[in-house]
Amino acid sequence: MTHRHTLRVYYEDTDLAGIVYYANYLKFIERARSEWVRGLGVDQGRLREEAGIVFAVRRVEADYLRPAKFDDILDVETTLVTLGGARIVLRQEVRRGDEVLFAAVVTLVCLTAGGQPARLPAEIRAALTT
Asked: Is 15 a catalytic residue?
């Protein structure tokens, strides 16, 4: 299952050279992950309030392959790689058409409000695997 989120590069996303500033790719993939889980029916705010569970990025392995520029239309593709008891591993790619500009493997962990590892709730696991 692959989720696609489309976005436009704004002037504020670029550096003095007119290309996307490297840290903004992390913002792009974060937005795409949020839209992915929202699309699956997962309300992260309610999950935090009712179950005391949050997701946190544990690790990011990133490859910057080609520059994106002002006004480009980009697609962020998010694909589930593995699902563990308290861990989710995703592959995310930022594309301009068929061209991959940025690729990352992102490891998320499920935590309690106190920062302790927590098992993924069954309903979240079911939503992620459908």
From this structure: yes
